[in-house]
């Protein structure tokens, strides 16, 4: 790769690694090891196609799409059902009530996400974490808009069932 | 609050608690990408030196870390057969002047260099600089690990006329990966200059005076000197007219060292001893049969597949798998570039081709048109991007300018989209060896 492009890529990778990792952690239901693998693979794909990828209007958004597709492909490759929820990484150090609330919210939410089917989880992450529209979500997942709507309704119902009112309480405690 | 809003808030609060070693992750992504690229036989261009500089530019290197023991610099003995010089002797510096530049923990004014590396490499860099005040510094290896086995050092210093940044990186490179030629100035910011000097002993010195950013963004100037020896040693020094490579305003019109001084810096024999710790560059992966055709062959065929009414003004491009030419149909110059790559056939479903039209022979075609992201107002870019079932990717792009970052020469490119498609899908690309 041309040196300037390598520079450009590395700057991109350095600034996007954290957001990608956060998305990947939600996609994997908190499996941070798998999340790292997914981000690594995503950044690798971005490197390979960087000449073109860097010219799209929003390479950061493009990378997020690549991440989601990598995640879904990974699921297909594993074809072994749900991956176990990995050991949750340590909650940021600190003390006090707010930290325990953060930890509780995290555990509760990740547990609920991990119970969703991978594609449902991807819909939730794209729609409610990345704030993508139905159409954008469909494009990222290479499915129809109606399929996204169906999955979205199903996922929200499941999450309501799992989280109930506790979600509002946990969120409002912050 | 609706459940969806609570969910969004919960995702944000939870997502934000995850953190990882971004630097390591970015480096891992780079390594994986390179590995894939090699498998695809798309030549990897660039050198360890470039990567080292880029890694730091990207903010992947943090100052501080494990400090190395400070040792007095060994007096260097110039090689009588070499064209290189000992800068201290050349400039008549003495140790008392060196002391004024600090000892790694303080500068000449007694200011603490909070976290400045005390590596030998940094020490040499500091000693080779003219008088000035060291404000901060760092050193790392090629992968960005602070200090240990440092092959990269950087200082922010002020010679009294404004703070600036200067860095040096050492590497080895195999033939074909060395930066011993001037870069393709058509791809650089207008006004960039380059001077290439062949030195006695077959060493080559390349000095580039350009900018940090190659597009229209404002940013500091980046002046660079690269010395390459016949055995593949590379010493690269960069300096910027700002206290940071990016993100801080410039402090002076030009970087502090002249091109000649920057050249002298990389020519110092005081860098020699560090190369004993730098392993030989890995051999390039063998590519006969599966490699990319030569630049000349790609350029020749590109001319053939474009409309013959076009007059070729300027052929160019040095990067494997990438070439460009500037053509004119009598109504203004058009910059045409081509990417020629061989992909793993399993990767033809890459997101780039998600919305492709599939041609009768299975080739996937994507047409793109839009504003150029590397130019000024009015830049139009048209691209015909194709990938064939076997993995051969040919993308031909035309601009309504005569190069990157150049003003427009006409309203639209002088090669139509249909003509670009015809050029990209020409069957002769598949036969190119």
From TrEMBL, chain A:
The keyword ATP-binding does not apply. Transmembrane segments: none annotated. Residues 18-79, 112-161 form the RNA polymerase sigma-70 region domain. Gene3D superfamilies: 1.10.1740.10, Winged helix-like DNA-binding domain superfamily/Winged helix DNA-binding domain. GO terms for biological process: DNA-templated transcription initiation. One of its GO terms (molecular function) is DNA binding. Residues 78-99 are annotated as: Disordered. Belongs to the sigma-70 factor family. ECF subfamily. This is RNA polymerase sigma-70 factor, sigma-E family. It comes from Actinacidiphila glaucinigra. The lineage of its organism: Bacteria, Bacillati, Actinomycetota, Actinomycetes, Kitasatosporales.
Automatic annotation (TrEMBL), chain B:
Residues 66-116 are annotated as: Disordered. It comes from the Bacteria. The chain crosses the membrane at residues 42-62. Residues 74-84 have a biased composition (Polar residues). Keywords: Membrane, Transmembrane, Transmembrane helix. Residues 85-104 have a biased composition (Basic and acidic residues). This is LigA protein. It comes from Actinacidiphila glaucinigra.
